[in-house]
Amino acid sequence: MAHDAQGNRASFASAEAARAFDHMVEGFLKYRLDTPQRLKAALQLDPEAPLPHMMQAGFAMLAYKAAHVPAARAALDQARKLGGNPREQMHLAALDAWADGAQDRAIAIWERIIAEHPRDIMAFRFHHFGAFWMGRAPAMWNAVEGILPHWDGEVPGYGSVLACRAFANEEAGHLLIAEHAGREAIRRDPADLWAAHAVAHVLEMQGRRAEGIAWITGLSRHFEGGNNLKHHIFWHQAMFHLERGEHAEVLHLYDTGFRNLDSPVTQMQPDLYIDCQNAASMLFRLERQGVDVGDRWEELAEKAEARIGDCLSAFTLPHWMMALCAAGRFEAAERMLAAMRDYCGANSGENPRVVREAALPCCEALLLRARGMHAAAVAVMRPALGGMHELGGSHAQQDVLEQLFLDCAMAAGLDADAQLLLERVTGRWPTPPERRVGYRSATIGWRG
Q1: Cβ atoms < 10 Å from Cβ of 313
Q2: Contact criterion met (CB below 8 Å) for 181 and 147
Q3: Distance, CA of 329 to CA of 19 (rounded, Å)
Q4: Does pLDDT of 275 surpass 80?
Q5: Which residue ranges form the domains of the chain, and what is each CATH number?
Q6: Contacts of 31 (CB under 8 A, 6+ apart)
Q7: Of 94, 135, 85, 97, which is closest to residue 114 (Cα–Cα)?
Q8: Euclidean distance between the first and final Cα of the chain, in Å?
Q9: Contact between residue 391 and residue 368 where contact means Cβ atoms under 8 Å apart
Q10: Which pLDDT tens digit goes with each residue over 359-416?
Q11: Contact partners, residue 62, CB within 8 Å, separation at least 6
């Protein structure tokens, strides 16, 4: 039996097929745009191997788009017919759970796989992703620190483990470890987008804006051939410029960096959840600063309206609602709320609960805010504050929802609620709110 690059036994007919699968996994880990083509090559070399079919399913689920779930299930059915060893059968069970909406079960199975096979980079990376989008930073941290003793610099994929260590530690608040791991991953491979992204997070949390801009611009020549993650890194660059009040540069990056509608990468997946989150959250932040963003909301609102009823990505839902409200599409916004309530009532599992308890209040608050009902927006959103992390997203991404609550509290003259929010962000961010553009005006006369 063949083995993968990390030494795990795998059901491949030949060493050549195993190498093709390894090449695809490397593309997956490094966010390469040609990863689907690499998977196609692996399938052609060994169509009877179960793992490439499982990766087909995984890629379909990674899009967080309801329309892709049937393709994921079809790929899993094909993998099921092909059998596989016990480790591969656990992969099948995890992906089955994910396709069924049982993210908790999927995460638990990936944890079992890496406990038994700590060099299973595919299970580790899916776990890292799944835990992140369920708002479980401790699970991300436990996983990477648990497997790290079983890795060294000679094992293919070690740099990606370091990149994940950087991001997991950043989200857990261990910023020194995070920065060291991320910079070491970049030293090994300057094109490691996940590592570049993790260090950008550290610099943002610490308010190191000039360094952040220099970090990203210095690495950007290595981003060629990367997928949509490079858009998110440019979003981070725009966040640094936003904090410096450089609004023209933010809009330039919007149009040419992270929401570049002329880019072939964007055109491949024009409504990809992370790209639309980047765009909507930045426009929302800019408008809070009084910046005229022109007609940029319109194309996002078109995509938001087309995705009404698709609730797979709980964190994306408030971003769709931002676009609908900003474009004045209130009837569509009401339909979106109704579809979210229907989804929560008709489905069980973790995601419907998170949509009901966190996403729905945020979306309701956005519509109330758009209608000038700021006190009502605060009232509907206040009970969700403690559970918003379950929507997924990083501290930097979640921050836009906290700005939403603060904005409504200030507009309604609810000083106690504004203070509550300022205390929350002060406890979590090393950079004090008076040094952050989204909070500065609210801190005048406030004692933290």
Answers
A1: 25
A2: no
A3: 51
A4: yes
A5: 1-156 (1.25.40), 290-448 (1.25.40)
A6: 193, 194, 226, 227, 228, 229, 230
A7: 94
A8: 62
A9: no
A10: 999 999 999 999 999 999 999 999 999 999 999 999 999 999 999 999 999 999 999 9
A11: 129
Give the pair of three-digit tokens for residue 363.
């979306």
Residue whose C-alpha is closest to residue 235's, from 269, 268, 267, 193? 193
Query: Using an 8 Å Cβ cutoff, are 318 and 331 in contact?
Result: no
What is the Cα–Cα distance from 354 to 17, expressed in whole angstroms? 41
Query: pTM of the predicted model, to two decimals?
Result: 0.96
Q: What integer pLDDT is reported at residue 348 of this predicted model?
A: 81
